[in-house]
Amino acid sequence: MAVTGSRMGVVGGSIAGCAMAVAGVRAGAEVTVHERSDGELRDRGLGIVIPPPLHRRLVDAGYLDAAMPTAPVATRVWLTRVPGERSAREFARQPSAVTPCNWGLLWQSLRAATTGARYHRGRPVTSVARDPAGGALVRTAEGEEAYDIVVGADGHRSLTRQVLAPDLRASPAGYTVWRGTLPAGAWAEHRRPLELLRASWVTIGFPGGHGIFYLIPRGGGAGPDERLLAYAIYATPPAGSHDEAGHVRQLADEHFPREWADIVARGEHTAMTCHPVADLHAPLAADPPFLLAGDAAGVTRPHTASGAVKALQDALCLEEALRTSASPAEALRHYARERTPEGARLVELGRRLGRAQVEQTPDWTAMDQGSVDAWCRATLAGTKSYLYADTD
């Protein structure tokens, strides 16, 4: 095909950037990755989940090492705190298979698969522009390079996206997500949470928000009994509060069943982050010679659990487009036709899930299996999400 030997520059060397680099190499392109950080990204240890079929496809295709540790579970358990008490009430279970991963281990596996690409660390891109002679230019402090394709995999503040959509701004949701990971010692003595987490991922509903909990591998040869507990908690923070760790612990104490509150409020974290929830969607995922991937193309509310998932699917789409197209421009138009509407769908889905689970939460204490299944169907409104499989 005409794309074989094409020069492809990737702006950003995180999960999206590495995945796109693998796609380019597998399709026969000459790939260069420009990563601004001069350190290793593998030490980032927050949790993510991906659909099991996607994980298998990435392993079979050579994007991921089959030996990369994961912590697959098949069921979602819904809990809330009994009113006036500190005990937990389980009110629903749903088939919901996910493959939880450690962000750092996933990046490490993708990075290892970029063999054949040039990967420059500590080389931030200062600008990208169209080349009057055709193609695109990527500028760094070291100079300027010309490419047939430039992939913007540079996150939610994408420099590359500014070329395609200079006026695009994120839309704030009005609430916040706290993410954290806790070592085994923080939860090993809590028998019931441990039993649930070994076979399922858990949602805890409370007024004005909810929390998601699941286990992820620790890496470094650690076994299943040494996994990390990963969580994401959504709520509206108090006005003027800057004590992020203190507020998430207060939320846990006020709203979680006792054992879960003990884990979050008193456990020593291995990592914790906090950021306002927002979303955006580029009107085009590609406009030759530029292509956007991952968060550069669109940021969805985290309820969809599609950040890394979308980046990995973007890479598979790009590889197919490069393999089946007669030119780089044709490949990017193919990519835009497939990935632009998918990004828009995920943004809208994230907004519906946010309204249902944070902005207009139901009375979780009154929910049962039937009402949860009906609530999920109404929230999805006919669209698909691997997190809500088989709610019929």
Automatic annotation (TrEMBL):
Entry-linked InterPro entries: DHP_3-monooxygenase, FAD-bd, FAD/NAD-bd_sf
Database matches in SUPFAM superfamilies: FAD-linked reductases, C-terminal domain, FAD/NAD(P)-binding domain
Molecular functions per Gene Ontology: monooxygenase activity
Alphabetized Gene3D superfamilies for the sequence: FAD/NAD(P)-binding domain
Keyword field: Monooxygenase, Oxidoreductase
Pfam families (UniProt xref): FAD_binding_3
Name of the protein this chain belongs to: FAD-dependent monooxygenase
Gene source species: Streptomyces glycanivorans
